[in-house]
Specification:
The chain has nine helices and 20 strands. It is an alpha+beta fold. The protein has three domains: 83 residues, Elongation Factor Tu (Ef-tu), domain 3; 144 residues, Threonyl-trna Synthetase, Chain A, domain 2 (Threonyl-tRNA Synthetase, Chain A, domain 2, 2-Layer Sandwich), CATH 3.30.980; 103 residues, Diaminopimelate Epimerase, Chain A, domain 1, CATH 3.10.310.40. Strands 2-3-7-6-5-8 form a six-stranded antiparallel β-barrel. The protein has a five-stranded mixed sheet with strand order 16-17-18-20-19, sandwiched between helices. The protein is elongated. The structure holds zinc ion. The site of zinc ion has 6 residues, from helix 2. Zinc ion binds next to helix 2.
């Protein structure tokens, strides 16, 4: 006996009663076949339904060699009466996404002649691949037309035309079809061979949101969301924008401008800081002229400025100049220079002793050490031997 497919009779059926025909043990758990079911098995890009048979969770539903199997943790006796309950939130979400995908694919097919060559319903977003490019700015227009179609609340039409009847129909299909073919039509928007379950009226989709389009495989990949996912997405955006708006004390429509101003201020502050560091470098260089070997700790200075400081001081101090930027917790970045000197041996020893790494030219080296200021000072004073 073939299982009656209740999901094709009524896609809004959330609960049904039936009888167990067969139960088989699997490596893990059991699989059960019923005389009738409203559980949609995976197929046509649409994931399977989950829910309950009596009080046993239905973990997954698959069509295997034309039969629909419900995968359970516990067995069920053949002949047993069952009440099936579908996880409706999951199913309705999947119907919203799938129906929305058809309408968008149909409209793009009509407008550009492109085919849907790949369709993925992920847990977060849906992606559709088309075999041609769509300018980003035209997506808005497609999105508007698709939503208008939702608002107009068109009823779906599902037919099973004969082979001859089918030949006259301009339906979309990914492959050559044989046997009974189910044609899902959104009048005026799409006609497509499909085995999935759909909403009954386009209004049930709620909203269609085209998120992005990216070039892929010589065509374009569109990322979209429908119904509840579109609502959740806009709620996340609202929440993010609300936080930014509060942090920047900006009106919600002016957060981008506020970020621009903040960036500008940040750049100015950075330039000021660099200017101040350069002034400091000049001052220290003047102070240290002719003073011989130098060991300088600059806890606030950037490594880049530290390098500049070492390079400037070594020119005039008349000895070796080491600059260490950082702190005892994170370690220090160093730059050491000696005009016409050869620091290679010295730095090799220093890196060994102070857990450091780095190198450079004989007269100028850079790197980092994992050591405290005290350990570094000790090394410079007497650690060479
Ligand atoms: Zn479909």
């Amino acid at each position: 006996m073939i299982t009656e497919r209740l999901f094709y009779q009524d896609s809004w059926m959330k609960e049904f009663s039936g009888e167990v025909l067969e139960c088989r043990q699997e490596k893990q758990g059991y699989r059960v076949r019923l005389d009738r079911t409203a559980f949609y098995p995976e197929g046509g890009g649409q994931p399977y339904d989950t829910g309950f048979l009596n009080d046993i969770p239905v973990l997954q539903v698959q069509e295997i060699e034309g039969e629909i199997w419900h995968f359970l943790e516990k067995p069920m006796e053949p002949g047993m009466k069952v009440t099936g309950k579908i996880d409706w939130e999951r199913r309705f979400d999947l119907m919203q996404q799938h129906s929305g995908e058809h309408i968008v694919s149909g409209m793009i097919h009509e407008r550009y002649g492109y085919n849907n060559i790949g369709f993925h319903m992920g847990p977060e977003t849906i992606t559709i691949d088309f075999d041609g490019e769509i300018p980003e700015e035209e997506l808005k227009e497609i999105e508007y037309q698709a939503n208008k179609y939702v608002w107009e609340n068109h009823p779906i039409e599902i037919t099973y035309p004969t082979k001859e009847g089918r030949e006259k129909l301009p339906y979309r299909s990914k492959k050559e079809l044989t046997g009974e073919v189910r044609i899902v039509t959104w009048p005026g928007a799409d006609m497509c061979a499909c085995c999935g379950v759909h909403v009954k009226n386009s209004g049930e989709i709620g909203q269609i949101m085209l998120l992005s389009s990216q070039r892929a495989k010589g065509g374009v990949r569109i990322e979209m969301l429908c119904g509840i996912r579109a609502l959740q997405h806009s709620n996340q955006l609202k929440e993010q924008n609300r936080k930014i708006s509060n942090l920047l004390s900006a009106k919600w429509k002016e957060t981008a401008q506020a970020v621009e101003r903040l960036q500008e201020e940040y750049q100015n502050t950075r330039f000021q800081l660099i200017g101040m560091e350069y002034e400091k470098i000049e001052r220290i260089t003047r102070e240290k002229a002719g003073q011989g070997d130098q060991l300088l700790f600059e806890h606030q200075m950037s490594g880049e400025s530290g390098r500049k400081l070492a390079a400037e001081v070594m020119e005039t101090c008349g000895g070796r100049c080491g600059v260490f930027c950082g702190d005892d917790q994170k370690g220090y970045r160093y730059a050491i220079g000696e005009k016409n000197g050869d620091l290679r041996e010295f730095v090799k020893k220093m890196n060994q002793k102070l857990q450091g790494r780095g190198g450079g030219k004989p007269f100028f080296v850079q790197g980092s050490v994992q050591a405290s200021e005290e350990e570094i000072r000790n090394f410079f004073e007497n650690g060479e031997e």
